[in-house]
Sequence to fold (349 residues):
Amino acid sequence: MLKSLIRLTIERLDRLALALVSRSGLLAAAYFLVFNQQFRREQRAVLVGRRVYYRGLGVAVHSSPMLRRNVHRLEKGLVMRPRQPVFAEDYIQETVEALLTAEQHGLLGAEESRWARDVLDSYFAAVTDTPRIAWARTQFLRLDSGSVAASDTAWQPQPRAAGVRSGVKFDEFMALCQQRRSVRWFLPEPVPRELVVKAVAAAAQAPSACNRQPFVFRYFEQPAEAQRIAGIPMGTTGYADNVPALVVVLGDLSCFPAERDRHVIYIDAALASMQLMLALETLGLASCPINWPDVESLERRMDRELGLPQHIRPIMLIAIGYPDPRGGVPFSAKKPPDSLLRLDDDYAS
Fold:
């Protein structure tokens, strides 16, 4: 009784304080410094992520966030209309240096290396030399041309007309979207790993800011382990022990050198996760996205269970399995398009 009274008193005082502390950035900063610690884990995670990012520059790694970002920026420059004869001067040297360092150590992924090489080939064929571009061109030509397998199709910007066409009609896609529902009751059957790998391949095609893809899908395919992890977040009481397989979507803050990009892990991971769940449906599997609340005690437990470093943050969990045809699924009426879409005319009147 006393604890409840204290909690209610604190909540009321907190609500009263909002009218004051929300008036300015300085007061808001003081409030979170002294009275509210909810964002401290995120603040530290962002700083650790930046430290890991800078520590990784110049070190050969399987994938380089800086290299991926810069190569994608080159691609965007190549498709500009009109294309500028000189662009990317401010980062072309660090891009080539990063590729050289990574390949000298032989630890850059083959696909990332090939993509970087092909785009740089297009870049140097398109731009006019300046002193910095000429230096970068000379360094790029030092690369061993035989270390990456060639193919008939270059991994470079292509006209839209040359891209893959699926042939899927809107009605078919809409049916798939309606078929996908959050399923909480699964058959006690193992989930074939190869199907999850296929779904992840589809998820990897999702858009990502500067193509950094700052996330991973941590997969638990043993039911006992999946159910234990599924029981950590709030909201899974009653069905967590029915989950045959589980994905924990993790965001990697070490992909960014600046605080301004701290939310990209959530945006990019959410885009990829939706494609993952749609892909699972086409493979006969169902899924249930599980909200991850930013609660300190749960964050600590997830860190312990998964052995997460400070800069890796849980985004969401996704239960996976073959749906029990007798299991109930909420109807979950969706908002109509006219309540979600706002036109310019709506604000003109």
Residues 55-140 form one domain. The mean pLDDT is 92.
